[in-house]
Amino acid sequence: MEELNLIEKAKQGNKGALNTLFVENYPILKGYIIKMTGNPDLSQDIVQETLLKAAMNIKKFNPKAKFSTWLITIGTNVYRDMLRKNKQVIPIDDAMIAEGNSVEDEVISKIEYKEILNILQKMSYEKRSVFILKHYYSYKYEEIAEILGCPIGTVRSRLHNCIRDIIRELERRGII
């Protein structure tokens, strides 16, 4: 309920409410973008552009989903646009592991975590984004489909193929 109140105030021009929304959702957005790009410096640029776009378009936000979902959607689009413009995939940066101070770091060993991130970085952003949204952020298939602008069947297919490819690569590397 508090988030809806902040959103309404932000839509009315309350900068403090907008700032609170950004501060509360920044860790989720930053973690997602770091996992997508594998590069903390590039991630910071994407996060800043995402927040700028969100601030400029706050009046268009329809709170049928969480504010963090909206930010992740914008961030995904900013990253997608960057990939289209640059026609390149940014290699994973080892510094990313140091920045990923979250629960998954405690659950998954550093080696497995790093291996999975390395494998993910070699996949298309479509597969990578579905995997990260589902397994790191526990979004439902419907929410992922909305964020990425694709059918639920496509989300399921991408996730299935991504997991299959990760398992094959981990087996090839002798990790599992």
Map the helices and strands.
Layout: H1 2-11, H2 15-37, H3 40-56, H4 67-86, H5 95-99, H6 103-107, H7 110-121, H8 125-135, H9 141-148, H10 152-172
Helix pairs in contact: 1-2, 2-3, 2-4, 3-4, 4-9, 7-10, 8-10, 9-10
Q: Short description, anyone?
A:
Helices cover 75% and strands 0% of the residues. It is mainly alpha-helical and 176 residues long.
Describe this structure in words.
The protein is mostly helical. Helices cover 75% and strands 0% of the residues. α1 crosses α2 and α3 packs across α4 (67-86). It has one domain (2-172): Up-down Bundle (Butyryl-CoA Dehydrogenase, subunit A, domain 3). It starts with a helix and ends with a helix.
